[in-house]
Write a structure and sequence with these properties.
Length: about 550
């Protein structure tokens, strides 16, 4: 929306100067200081546009006009009570208003209805003629009804008028606040594009025609109407197709000396109507992954409506874990199309160049690949079944006993069939209780690890399965304390042929807790001084907690 910032400034200037020019009544200007004023128009924050507009307007207003200044949303976030009459109506207030606007913060809500009512009360609208000028970039957010307020102020006031300037509002948003002005006989300026602004200004400055002179000269012949835009491209999926106006994008670049893309001029979405300066451009029309590029030479006084043909179609992929199951939101869908690739998740839709499409759907450890021929302009909708089953794994200290509710539990799923070297192929990993796996039909082993306990449990999966796999650790918890110890070490109780015991684990410090398989062990306290080690035998029972102190 090139030129919108200048249009907003001009709108405010003409509205206020017109208001002041019709009568020497008191006026309060209300400025929206809500957080949305930080949004940008043409790369410039709205609050800066508002400040510059006020300075410009106030410089052109006679010094004896009595002008006041009110703001809302400038002191508190989330408050509907943050409304303040900063400068009371008085002559010579221009510098005070400009200074107040320049120093205020923009962070609150939009209680515009309450602000207009307070300004009307401050002007004693039931006793004297009064005018309020509201500058806002948003709609009421504090429950007020601006339309009803407009009617009330008009009915109860002596001669009350509210004029409203809207910043970058849509036509529908503008209608929701225009009634505040219309119900008081005031004006509303929709400052959303230059054309709408020009039409509004014509209404603002219109005045009764002067009495005709005795012999008016004949009016000159009107000049031919100039086109509003000089560049209006359109894009279609395939030759002869309907233009795409929703979801598509336009990228416009200055052409470099070699004809390639230079500096970017703009990126716009949907239907594009704009004005380009004379020169050479590279224009790209795109919809999702499909693109069409043209070189355009723009000359002064000419209009251009080039057609971009994407030569593309649309693929809609519904991924399923198994035949007859619901669409999977956990699926990864990879589209490999002529010239590129893209990834979506869950129910997937992609617009891609026409030709052979390779679609790979992955759910957990399972994948399925389909090849689709897609013609330009065609939409192909396809269900892809990966064929996996679902398993949820939990560990228990004993079969039927307490669940091991520990985030340190590790589950590794490997294939049951060993490879030629005796190892097993690793399939998936997960940690913590309720670990979920999507697995292709096969025989597997769940290797479950919790501290010093390691258990292997075989299970099988079929497509469409929903299994609850419970792993019995046959283990207990050993809580060890060794006051003053440098480290604590756990050994198997049985010695080997050389009289040595196997070390199962070691921890530095004087306390340690571990899950350990049921059986007999020896716990050794190591001190920093050699020769001070102490040991204690201990027996661990499955599903029980054992506490010992070695000293």
């Amino acid at each position: 929306m090139a030129g919108l910032a200048r249009s907003v400034t001009a709108a405010i200037l003409l509205l206020l100067t017109t208001t002041f020019g019709f009568a020497a009544n008191k006026v309060i200007i209300i400025l929206d200081a809500s957080g949305s004023m930080w949004a940008q128009i043409d790369g410039k924050p709205k609050l800066e546009i508002a400040r510059e507009s006020l300075r410009t307007v106030l410089q052109s207003v006679p010094a004896d006009d009595e002008i006041g200044f009110m703001a809302y949303g400038h002191r508190q976030k989330g408050s509907c009570e943050d409304i303040e009459l900063i400068v009371p109506p008085q002559a010579g207030s221009a510098s005070a208003i400009s200074a107040a606007a320049d120093s205020m913060k923009f962070l609150g809500k939009t209680p515009l209805t309450a602000a207009v009512k307070q300004a009307a009360d401050a002007l004693k609208y039931t006793e004297d003629k009064a005018t309020v000028v509201l500058i806002t970039d948003g709609l009421e957010t504090c429950g007020g009804d601006p339309c009803a307020l407009g009617k009330e102020l008009k009915e109860t006031g002596i001669d009350f008028t509210a004029d409203v300037v809207g910043f970058g509002l849509t036509a529908d948003e503008g209608r929701q606040i225009a009634c505040l002005a219309e119900n008081t006989g005031g004006k509303y300026i929709q400052a959303s594009d230059e054309k709408a602004l020009q039409q509004a200004l014509v209404e603002i400055v219109a005045a009764p025609a002067p009495a005709p002179e005795p012999a008016p000269a004949p009016a000159p012949a009107p000049e031919p109407a100039k086109p509003e835009f000089n560049f209006m491209p359109s894009v279609v999926m395939a030759e002869g197709g309907d233009p795409i106006t929703d979801g598509n994008a336009w990228e416009i670049y200055k052409a470099a000396a070699d004809g390639t893309r230079g500096d970017q001029v703009m990126t716009e979405y949907g239907e594009l109507k704009t004005n380009l300066e004379p020169g050479d451009y590279v224009v790209v029309g795109r919809d999702d992954e499909a693109r069409s590029e043209q070189k355009i030479k723009v000359e002064a006084g000419q209009t251009y409506s080039p057609l971009f043909t994407l030569n593309a179609g649309t693929l809609v992929i519904h991924p399923h874990a198994s035949q007859g199951s619901e669409i999977s939101g956990e699926a990864r869908v990879d589209f490999n199309y002529p010239g590129g690739n893209t990834t979506h998740y869950g129910d997937a839709k992609a617009t891609v160049p026409a030709g052979e499409q390779k679609v790979t759907v992955q759910i957990g450890a399972g994948t399925a690949t389909e090849t689709v021929q897609l013609a330009a302009g065609q939409t192909v909708e396809k269900d892809v079944v990966v064929g996996v089953g679902h398993a949820v794994l939990n560990a228990y200290y004993t079969a039927g006993g307490d669940q091991a509710d520990n985030s340190g539990i590790g589950f590794e799923i490997v294939k049951a069939k060993k490879q030629i070297d005796g190892s097993r192929e690793s399939v998936e990993h997960s940690y913590g209780p309720d670990s979920k796996f999507w697995l292709p039909p096969d025989d597997y082993v769940a290797i479950t690890t919790l501290d010093l306990a390691v258990v292997e449990q075989p299970f099988s999966i079929k497509a469409g399965d929903n299994q609850d796999v419970k792993v019995a650790l046959d283990a207990g918890v050993l809580a060890m304390s060794a006051p003053g110890a440098y480290s604590i070490e756990v050994f198997s109780s049985k010695k080997d042929i050389e009289g040595k015991r196997k070390s199962l684990g070691l921890s530095y410090g004087d306390s340690w807790q571990q899950t350990i398989p049921a059986g007999d062990y020896v716990v050794v306290r190591h001190m920093s001084d050699q020769g001070q080690d102490k040991e204690m035998p201990v027996t661990i029972k499955a599903g029980e907690r054992t506490e010992i102190t070695v000293q």
